[in-house]
């Protein structure tokens, strides 16, 4: 992987962690109780999307070798 791809992978990992943070915050904050279902759906989509992107980048890198 080149330097630009490495930065993207770290960005994707940060997005996955942000998704988990959204799940954790939405389950503990009393203010966000009404938004909990929407926030959990958004967080799961974010986690799945960026996990898929990391896997895709890995497969593309393996196919180049």
UniProtKB/TrEMBL annotation:
Keywords for this protein: Membrane, Transmembrane, Transmembrane helix
Superkingdom of source: Bacteria
TM segment ranges: 9-32, 38-56
Name of this protein: Uncharacterized protein
Species this protein is from: Litchfieldia luteola
Organism taxonomic ancestry: Bacteria, Bacillati, Bacillota, Bacilli, Bacillales
């Amino acid at each position: 992987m080149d330097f630009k791809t490495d930065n993207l992978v770290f960005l994707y990992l940060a997005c996955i962690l942000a998704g988990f943070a959204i799940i954790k915050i939405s389950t503990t904050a009393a203010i966000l109780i009404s938004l909990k279902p929407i926030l959990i759906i958004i967080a799961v989509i974010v986690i799945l999307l960026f996990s898929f992107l990391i896997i895709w980048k890995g497969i593309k890198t393996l196919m180049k070798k």
